[in-house]
User: Which sequence fits this backbone?
């Protein structure tokens, strides 16, 4: 396997993102035509060792024939002063990918996906000179980021993407010095950044990004039927997720997620715990809305 045929995939995870990671990694590997070509990078900040051991066990259980490695960094130091997502700064970790990975192209993936498709065709995807390729999500007008972008002179019709699946051209990133660009961006009233890394990356692109085929990031909300795609990257956006409390009753994507969810991973991250109950309490309104939309509002 030459360096040119290897394909780097990156996850940036915190403890809160681990419940979904098992099925995401499992589906990625199972549906890959050449898993030995994959180099899976796990970016994490201050991750307790027993969680890292669980990830190692996951790869062993899957008999993964490719390569995996951990990239450890300090999110609190790197992103000090930026708005947190659910109290955490690791979502910004994908901004550091070009600092740690020496490759032509890198695929970034969130940990709340089921990758029911082979990702290797993206290895040869023509970026046409763009730094980022992502699925077009629509215009910024229909996002929570609208006030942020209008205040900075961008138009309502600016093309916008969800940052859960990103193909990054590392050479183009470095040539255009995007690291300097995003570090300048976050100095501009950082407290007003509404959607953490997603806001920053969309501002970096300013609507100019390469469009991935739509089936590489398909939104799957709890109360919706499975989107009409035979093979796709299904993205469990919003709350609740299939693995959340009552997810087996509420989320239409539960069976899809369940077929890729390793039993040992569920024992580690699906057991009732203080953390799981705390999350259920925090998203109780979302659980209630999803339940109502699925069972009551028909």
Assistant:
């Amino acid at each position: 396997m030459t360096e040119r045929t290897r394909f780097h995939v990156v996850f940036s995870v915190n403890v809160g993102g681990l419940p979904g990671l098992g099925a995401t990694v499992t589906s990625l590997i199972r549906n890959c035509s050449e898993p030995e070509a994959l180099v899976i990078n796990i970016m994490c900040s201050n991750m307790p060792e027993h969680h890292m051991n669980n990830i190692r066990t996951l790869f062993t259980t899957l008999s993964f024939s490719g390569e995996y490695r951990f990239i450890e960094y300090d999110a609190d130091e790197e992103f000090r002063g930026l708005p947190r997502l659910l109290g955490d700064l690791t979502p910004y970790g994908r901004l550091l990918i070009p600092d740690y990975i020496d490759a032509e192209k890198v695929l970034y993936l969130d940990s709340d996906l089921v990758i029911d498709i082979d990702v290797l065709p993206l290895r040869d995807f023509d970026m046409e000179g763009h730094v980022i390729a992502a699925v077009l999500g629509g215009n910024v007008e229909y996002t929570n980021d609208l006030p942020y972008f209008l205040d900075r002179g961008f138009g309502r019709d600016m093309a916008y993407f969800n940052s859960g699946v990103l193909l990054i051209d590392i050479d183009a990133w470095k040539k255009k010095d995007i690291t300097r660009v995003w570090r300048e961006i976050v100095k501009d009233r950082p407290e007003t950044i509404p959607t953490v890394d997603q806001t920053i990356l969309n501002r970096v692109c300013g609507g100019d990004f390469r469009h991935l085929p739509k089936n590489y990031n398909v939104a799957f909300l709890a109360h919706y039927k499975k989107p009409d795609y035979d093979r796709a990257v299904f993205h469990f956006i919003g709350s609740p997720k299939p693995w959340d409390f009552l997810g087996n009753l509420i989320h239409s994507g539960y069976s899809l997620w369940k077929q890729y969810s390793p039993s040992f991973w569920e024992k580690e991250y699906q057991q009732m715990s203080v953390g799981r109950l705390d999350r259920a309490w925090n998203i109780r309104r979302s659980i209630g809305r999803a339940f109502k939309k699925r069972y009551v509002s028909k």
Remarks:
- The radius of gyration is 19 Å.
